[in-house]
Every structure is written in structure tokens, then in C-alpha cells.
Design goal:
Low-confidence stretches of chain B: none
Oligomer: heterodimer
Helix content of chain B: under 10%
Distance between the termini of chain A: 33 Å
Shape of chain B: globular
Distance between the termini of chain B: 41 Å
Number of helices of chain B: 0
Order of helices and strands of chain A: EEEEEEEEEEE
Radius of gyration of chain A: 13 Å
Order of helices and strands of chain B: EEEEEEEEEEE
Number of strands of chain A: 11
Low-confidence stretches of chain A: none
Number of helices of chain A: 0
Largest interface: A-B, 30 and 24 residues
Structural class of chain B: mainly beta
Mean pLDDT of chain A: 93
Largest sheet of chain B: 6 strands, mixed
Shape of chain A: globular
Strand content of chain B: over 45%
């Protein structure tokens, strides 16, 4: 499978714990995006990487959230001291970043439940 | 900040009919728009895109129309099939660094 993969697919954690999610983009894609999606809503932009550089970060992103893409390939999203309001689907997407298209390919998401 | 909204949260159509899903955007600086389809339990799937220098683009059974004057985007699906049942989102961007999604329209195709 050469699509975007995310791990884990589901995560249940207790409030106050830290969690880390991983995203493996399509191999030749240099753009990588993280989104959060709650039920009945569209994906909400969190952050964007071009290669290993984090170029955009949502103003809404709490300082409990941090993302990395150390070698310009896979990326991790960490949430520290989780809160119940963090419960959501976390989506990763990648795109080629060249040409005139910004077509993004999304992974299946990681569903986080904070109890 | 930017906002992207959809006129109708739900839409039901008979199989074989055409569907039209609408979207309004507020940022006149946005120059690239995408329609996504999202099925239950899956990530969004790209359907079609359009740049602001165009007002119409056609794909297989789908057409996107862009009216920059009133900041309106629509997705037309021809001969709607049961497999088209999903939630449809429009998204906009100016630079490709941040994308703003609408709330979504749930399309149900009645056999």
C-alpha cells in the first residue's frame, strides 16, 4: 500500500496522559499536513511541514501540541497533558508540492478518546 | 480569519438524478479550491480542484463551478449513484500552506 498511513488507528487515554501519533506520507511527497476533525465538522488545520521545516501552525493550536518531521519523511504529533476536549480524529495528509495542484492525500486518521 | 461554509447540511437525491452541493467562502485572497468526499470511518478523498483563474472544471461525472464575484463554489454530480453517498467538503487555500474546510454536506442517495 503506497498511500498515507497513520498509527495507531485508535487511542484511548486517560486525561493528563501524553500521546503520540505517527504519520507516514507518500514517499515522494514533500508537503505534510496535520488536521483535527470532530464529529459533524470539517477537518481543522493544525500544522504544515515542507520537508522537515514546520512552516505553518494554527493559532488555535495549544502549546500542549507539538509536531515534528525530523528527516522530512514521517511525522509525529504529540499531545501533552491530554484533556477531554482533545478527543477527535487526527488526520494526516501529504501532497507533492510541485506543479499547480495542491491535491492532498489523506490517511485513515487516528481516533483519540480521552476519558 | 477565513471561513468556509456550506448552505445545506444534508441532501437527499434519487439514484440517477443530478446532485448540486454548494459552498460559500469568505476570503477573496483564496485562489485554489478543492472538493473532498469523506465516507464513514475514512479520511477525505480528493474529488476535483479548481483555481481562481477558472470558473468551471469538469471531471468524471463531476463539475465544479466557481463564482468569485459572490465567493461561491458548487459541486455537481451527474447521475448520482448509491456509492456517492458520503459527506462532501469544500476547502480553500491561498498559498497551499493552510487549508480551510467547510462544515460538510451529507449526501444520501435513495435507490
Amino acid at each position: 500500500d503506497t498511500g498515507v498511513s497513520q498509527d495507531p488507528r485508535h487511542k484511548i487515554t486517560k486525561r493528563g496522559q501524553n500521546v503520540t501519533f505517527r504519520c507516514d506520507p507518500i514517499s515522494e511527497h514533500n508537503r505534510l499536513y496535520w488536521y483535527r476533525q470532530t464529529l459533524g465538522q470539517g477537518p481543522e488545520f493544525l500544522t504544515y511541514f515542507q520537508n522537515e521545516a514546520q512552516l505553518e501552525k494554527s493559532r488555535l493550536l495549544s502549546d500542549r501540541f507539538s509536531a515534528e518531521r525530523p528527516k522530512g519523511s514521517f511525522s509525529t504529533l504529540e499531545i501533552q497533558r491530554t484533556e477531554q476536549g482533545d478527543s477527535a480524529m487526527y488526520l494526516c495528509a501529504s501532497s507533492h508540492g510541485t506543479g499547480s495542484s495542491y491535491e492532498q492525500y489523506f490517511g485513515p486518521g487516528t481516533r483519540l478518546t480521552v476519558t | 480569519g477565513e471561513s468556509v461554509g456550506l448552505h445545506l447540511p444534508t441532501l437527499s437525491v434519487q439514484e440517477g438524478d443530478n446532485s448540486i452541493i454548494n459552498c460559500a467562502y469568505s476570503n477573496s485572497a483564496s485562489d485554489y479550491f478543492i472538493w473532498y468526499k469523506q465516507e464513514s470511518g475514512k479520511g477525505p478523498q480528493f474529488i476535483i480542484d479548481i483555481r481562481s483563474n477558472m470558473d468551471k472544471r469538469q471531471g468524471q461525472r463531476v463539475t465544479v463551478l466557481l463564482n468569485k464575484t459572490v465567493k461561491h463554489l458548487s459541486l455537481q454530480i451527474a447521475a448520482t449513484q448509491p456509492g456517492d453517498s458520503a459527506v462532501y467538503f469544500c476547502a480553500e487555500t491561498g498559498t497551499g500552506n493552510q487549508f480551510y474546510f467547510g462544515t460538510g454536506t451529507s449526501l444520501t442517495v435513495i435507490p
